[in-house]
Write a structure and sequence with these properties.
The complex is a heterodimer of chains A (234) and B (323).
Chain A (H helix, E strand, L loop, with lengths): L2 H42 L3 H12 L3 H14 L2 H11 L2 H4 L4 H16 L4 H13 L3 H14 L4 H10 L5 H14 L5 H11 L6 H14 L4 H11 L1
Helix pairs in contact in A: 2-3, 2-4, 3-4, 3-6, 4-7, 6-8, 7-8, 7-9, 8-9, 8-10, 10-12, 11-12, 11-13
Chain B lengths: L1 H16 L18 E3 L6 E3 L5 E5 L2 E5 L3 H11 L10 E5 L2 E4 L5 H12 L38 H10 L7 H9 L20 H5 L6 H9 L33 E7 L4 H4 L13 E5 L7 H4 L5 E4 L7 E2 L3 E3 L2
Parallel strand pairs in B: 7-10
Antiparallel strand pairs in B: 1-2, 2-3, 3-6, 4-5, 6-11, 7-8, 8-9
Classes of the chains: A mainly alpha (234), B alpha+beta (323).
């Protein structure tokens, strides 16, 4: 007699279908997001063989063996070789218990090896590691790779710009020094932000260096002139 | 007779082992928290959480901030950084204890060991879940001496350490009162600048730094790798001690405070135990450091940084509310 229950059934069915579709979409999104995450994590993971080789060299205390591995992977010159050097050769197992003086020869040798790599995908991983490597000493070293390649690769500049806001001051300061040396114009907006906002009332060396960088790149000492310079030059 | 003998015996034991072994009354007649005992030196307390020396700051008013005239004068010389210290006001604080020295590498190392054992109860709920609590320059021999203040710690590191030790970071007001006493001294040791009384940019580089421009050019062109000394062992400048007995409150390292930072807070803060603003991404830094000029070593100077940032100029000390 009453049409309402019929309509309700239809509505209910539609609602159930809609809910089911929604759940399916959510599940799909979740699956693809998880897959994406796993993929992203996998992209940064070094080859298992490299992890074993570097761990064995480290365990034997043979520094020369580690240096040789850097060179071998550099000669291989592809994406997985770059990942091997970055995340196995310069990973926690190798560097964690070394003080800065002990780590220096390894970092220097790795820098040379990475500079020798010319493969496009290998270089891409090197620049990505400026942002994502967990050891700040490695991030600072990689900035030097970017500095040397600055004039040949756009990605090198991008890596330097990202490092300006690294939460470890040693890395950010190194990036500021490189911005001064190479007079990187595109660094100016970030440098202004560092001086005016992030480093507050001048925490110290980082802020002073950022200010000097702004003065050298823009030719001005006052914040108003820096903003003016940005509007005219970028 | 028996009772008298027992009393005398107890007195003799106290003299033999020091009053600190049993006292629950502090040097100033106050009732101490259970985690404190009086130390061997008059006015010192020792906290059981991390075996640090603490000093007592009695309840009462203190003069916080800077007058507008003074801030204007400072701004002409050192840049536009001083109006945030205005207005100058009397602020009341309940009694508290504060670490006599900045937290050292050795003390922080014990906290790292506790973390390795899985003691993670002290970690701030907002700290990044995968955070590594090892300070940035932990392996740099210029900075990691056991009696040097731990540096390049972020606010979450400092918060967790103090909570782990059974204490708290000082509020901004607690920090300032401990540094300048009740009457608003310009520096912990008095109103006159003394370069040799703290680890500051002038003692680090051996010459006066008289304005902001000179400071920017000096530090802006500095080769950090070539600098042999940054921090000094805590307590290296006894002439710079504050009216309440705290050391290195001017210089050595900037120190994190508990409060969030907004520049106009002094205009709206309550005059009784101000808790700090409720919203800001920044946390307060106080005290200046080895690279700070005399304008920033002032006890009233307010600085700030993002909670997750680490600098080789930043350390901390802890505080404890009195009963």
């Amino acid at each position: 007699m009453q049409p309402m229950p019929v309509i309700n059934v239809h509505h209910s069915l539609r609602a159930r279908l809609t809910r089911a579709a929604g759940l399916a979409c959510a599940a799909l999104l979740l699956v693809s997001a998880t897959a994406g995450f796993v993929h992203a994590a996998r992209k940064a993971a070094p080859p298992a063989q490299a992890v074993k080789e570097f761990a064995a060299a480290k365990a034997s205390g043979d520094v020369a063996a580690i240096l040789t591995l850097y060179d071998q992977y550099a000669a291989q010159d592809d994406k997985s070789a770059a990942l091997a050097v970055l995340y196995a050769g310069l990973g926690e197992t190798v560097l964690q218990d070394l003080d800065d003086q002990q780590a220096r020869p390894l970092l220097d040798a790795a820098e040379t090896a990475l500079l020798n790599m010319t493969d496009k995908f290998a270089r891409k991983e090197i620049y990505k590691a400026v942002r994502r490597h967990l050891d700040w000493r490695v991030r600072a070293m990689l900035l030097n790779v970017a500095r040397i390649r600055y004039h040949e690769e756009k990605r090198a500049e991008k890596a330097i710009l990202i490092a300006l806001t690294d939460h470890v001051d040693a890395v950010a300061i190194r990036a500021v020094e490189i911005a001064i040396e190479l007079e990187i114009k595109r660094a100016v907006p970030k440098l202004i932000k560092l001086v005016m906002d992030k480093w507050g009332q001048h925490v110290g060396v980082g802020a002073a260096k950022a200010k000097v960088a702004l003065e050298q790149i823009t030719g001005h000492t006052k914040p108003t002139a820096w903003y003016e310079w940005v509007s005219q030059n970028l | 007779m028996t009772l008298s003998l027992a009393f005398l015996g107890a007195m003799a034991l106290c003299v033999a082992f020091g009053s600190s072994a049993w006292a629950d009354t502090g040097w100033f007649g106050e009732r101490m928290p259970e985690t404190l005992i009086t130390g061997a030196t008059q006015g010192d307390y020792v906290h059981s959480g991390d075996d640090t020396a603490m000093v007592y700051v009695p309840a009462g008013y203190f003069l916080r901030g800077t007058t507008k005239a003074e801030a204007d004068a400072l701004s002409r010389r050192f840049g536009d950084f001083f109006m945030v210290e205005t207005p100058q006001r009397s602020i009341y604080l309940p009694a508290y204890y504060i670490d006599k020295f900045e937290v050292t590498n050795q003390q922080y190392g014990a906290f790292l060991d506790a973390l390795k054992r899985g003691e993670r109860h002290a970690i701030h709920p907002d700290a990044p879940p995968d955070k590594d609590y090892t300070p940035t320059y932990w392996r740099d021999s210029r900075l990691n001496g056991p009696d040097h203040p731990v540096t390049a710690v972020d606010w979450y590191d400092a918060f967790a350490y103090c909570r782990w030790a059974g204490k708290q970071l000082p509020t901004e007001a607690q920090w300032e009162k401990a540094a300048r006493g009740p009457d608003g001294l310009a520096y912990p040791w008095g109103d006159t600048w003394q370069a040799a009384y703290s680890n500051n940019v002038e003692s680090t580089f051996g010459h006066p730094v008289l304005d902001d421009r000179q400071w920017v050019l000096l530090l802006g062109n500095l080769d950090l790798d070539a600098l042999p000394v940054f921090t000094w062992p805590v307590g290296s400048f006894p002439q710079g001690v504050s009216p309440y007995g705290a050391h290195d409150m001017g210089g050595n390292l900037w120190e994190w405070a508990r409060d969030r930072y907004i520049k106009d807070y002094y205009h709206v803060a309550p005059s009784h135990d101000p808790p700090g603003p409720t919203a800001s991404p920044y946390r307060v830094l106080r005290g200046g450091c080895w690279s700070s000029h005399r304008g920033k070593i002032r006890a009233a100077y307010r600085n700030y940084d993002l909670a997750a940032d680490r600098h080789l100029e930043i350390g901390f000390r802890c505080a404890l509310a009195a009963e």
